[in-house]
Amino acid sequence: MTATATLTHTAALTRLGYALSDNTRTRVLLTLREAPAYPSDLADALGVSRQVMSNQLACLRGCGLVEAVPDGRRTWYRLADPLLAPALDDLLRLVLVVDPACCSSTDCSCA
Question: Could you list the residue ranges forming a coiled coil in this record (predicted)?
Answer without folding.
Answer: none
